[in-house]
Amino acid sequence: MKSLPTPAERLIVALDFSDVNEARKCVDELDGIVSFYKVGLELFTSASRGFLEELRQRKYQIFLDLKMHDVDETIRRAVANVAAIGVDFLTIHGNSATLKAACLGKVDQKLKLLAVPLLSSWNETDLQELFLVGPTEDFIPKFDNLDDYVFWRADQAISQGCDGLIASGEYVKKLRKRFDEKVLLISPGIRPTGSSTNEHKRSLTPGTAIQDGANYVVVGRPIRDAANRKEVAQRIIEDIATVTLPP
Hints:
Strand 1, helix 1 (20-29) and strand 2 (36-40) form a beta-alpha-beta unit. This protein is of the alpha/beta class. It is built from ten helices and eight strands. Strands 1-2-3-4-5-6-7-8 form an eight-stranded parallel β-barrel, surrounded by seven helices. Helix content is 42%, strand content 15%. The longest helix has 17 residues, at 41-57. Helix 3 (72-85) packs parallel to helix 4 and helix 8 (206-212) runs parallel beside helix 10 (229-241).
């Protein structure tokens, strides 16, 4: 039986750097405390595959956050390439066909595919601009409210075979209630008490996110910009450890 992640293993640190040397410095500073790192579009376009392989050689887990969205065959082949590297998590962002193609490309069951129902920087106003959510005087929306849209996207992703969802703010609790524990929930935009939420329109503290049902939390700037990164990471882990943890 696989053991549950420890509080430290539930923390994913976002390496939001353009310079691979700065990212490497951050990893070195957190060595011994953090074992899971997120590489997003900014760092990936700078460091690319070589840095991912370096993290893998150092026995770290990797969350590749690219929100892949492309032609179905391209997605299938790209996901297969990511699986071959040994990445643990990968984000997909698209319609049913895109999600299905991604799942077909997942030749390694170790790789967990995560769908993004709604970016943490978006809210109902952003979807109104896309004529998806209403009501307004100018159009008849496809969805009555933000919840309907998020649930539709989430149901679509899980039905196509995705392993989990990116969930922020109140949607952690709502999506955990909707899905059983087999569905992974990863919560981005996490901010320790007193930290700025920046552009994130839905944000939780680390402990609250875990208590609401998140399996993992993603923390970027509060650790990246700290004078003592290790100290901040340790406080976040301690916050996670104070709550009842989901599997």
